[in-house]
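Step 1: inspect the first sequence and its tokens.
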Amino acid sequence: MTSPLGELTPQQFLSDYWQKKPCVIRQAIDGFEPLLDGNDLAGLACEEMAESRLILGSAEKANWEVRHGPFEESEFAGLPEDHWTLLVQDVEKHYAPLQELMQLFNFIPNWRLDDLMISYAEPGGSVGPHVDQYDVFLLQAQGSRRWQIAEKFSPELLDDCPLNVLREFRPEQEWTLEAGDMLYLPPNVAHHGVAISAGMTFSIGSRAPSAADLLQGLGEWLALSDAQGGRFTDPQLEIPKRAGEMDAKALEGLRATMLSAINSNGLDDFLGQFISRFRLAQEPAEAPEPLNSNQVTQALSMGKALFRNPWTRLVWVNNDGAARLYAAGLPLDCELWLAQALCENAELKIDPEKMNQSTLDTLTCLINTGHYIFI
């Protein structure tokens, strides 16, 4: 498979559309064929580790019902013939071959990509008109779906509704997507998709932490440090003029305390740990039998390939010519070339002679903590 942008180049897409305006791409991926079908998705929704939902109802009747998995097979047999949708999150982590599809979106930094959510819908199936706070690519994998969008809308939601459905939605544009077509939506564009025929939609979402997410995470991170980010001081304290007042000098000092923690030298380390764990539903389990660096070297010398745990999210930052690698929150040091190779490939072979002892120790740690296995 090649670029998922049809006739657009990645640079054209980023310059003209990314976080700017919606874009419909006809036959986005040449010769695209989904690697699973609705029955596969239903089977996954019966698994305890999968996050899944069944949504029934329509915007016209506002009769929304949400059921959460894991499901029993009998529940699918009892569904109506139309107006329902099954959604499963993180499908590329449960079914690793789909990671190849995610890699097609490498024109976006991979730390910004989130997961592959797949929905199967019968005719009329929908989740209602709603708004996402992140960029999303909606690839029609099977069947057809009508999409309506509005860039100007009231944010009020329906009362007593189990979904975040907009109270009012007046579409400004409309398209019908057939198998292979894709719709890109930047954040804060209201959209409403309704299945015209039974089919699947692949939703490739992005990660966009809010200031609240970042500050809450920073507070928790600082709380575990010895100095807790520093403490407010007021050595030039004066007798208060009015009881209970926080004067301008006090407010300035409190803000300075907060900003000092945000601007500290360790902030990059926090961001690497935070982003590599942000919205991560599962964490890898440790290896049942730990290996030492000599055993790892021997396995690599025999040509064994390393396979990344699908739940492991990797990011790295440049640390004075070396790499500070983060694996689902675990900070490790290694050489730049290894950090890049690990992030670019879910499966790879490595020549042990290229690694120094420090990098070999890092790789051994990644294996023993469950982030990689030999295959």
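Step 2: inspect the second sequence and its tokens, then contrast the two.
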Amino acid sequence: MTDPTYALGRSDEEHARLTEQANFLRPLTERFFREAGIAPGMKVLDVGSGVGDVAFLLAELVGRDGKVVGVDIDGGALEKARKRAGQLELRNVEFVQGDVRTMTLPGPFDAAVGRLVLLYCADPVAALARISTHVRPKGIVAFQEMDLNEMAARATYGDSLLASVVATIYRTFAAAGVRTNMSSGLRHAFVEAGLGEPELLGEFVVGGGPGYAGYSWLANTLRSVAPMARKFEIPLEPLGDLDTLTQRLLSEAADTKRDFWSPQYVGAFVRTNS
């Protein structure tokens, strides 16, 4: 099987958006990792590191006596991650390019984690099973994924620019073959991978008001998926000038007094048996 296309592309703009997204999602991801048991002194494998933000969060959690090894197939993103790690003077993080499902890694690890990774796997069950082999007995496997539901967005936001932007993003992800309901299938994926019943933690981000970061994140996500949307002939013209999209979303939110609700994020974690 072939992995779904990364609908957001791998441009410099997308790499910047990943950091924006990391800042937006950091509180709920940090809560999830702490709940899963990530603690000082651990050696942690970060799957799908991108430009490094999750790895940097993990580096804080494991402390100077711990270590984080980040893996990603995007060499350009990892170059930026290494540069940022140097600027942050992080000595407990390293990045390795490759596919975690096929490569040899300097394990075993106390934990293997990832955020928004499995939705891009052709076979999440096989991916989890393989990733778990890098983890020591009684170690942690913890992944946080999301659901994207166009109909729910339409029902929440009605006939609005916000609804159209969210629906366009969701339609593009679906057209690219991304697993848009990955968080709903996360429990089953862990069980089918032979990891047992995971503990689950679900959250979403909600907010509004002038300058709320969610609107910028949403507009930049739309800009990242725009080339893929055009490839699949998903119309962008109704959304107007993409360069002014953030401000128009903010203006609409102020006029309608409508808050922005993020997709649902669900984290699942287990202690391995072997």
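Step 3: confirm your contrast with the notes below.
The first strand starts at residue 43 and ends at 47. The beta strands are 43-47, 67-72, 93-97, 109-115, 135-147, 199-203, 206-207, 260-261, 264-271.
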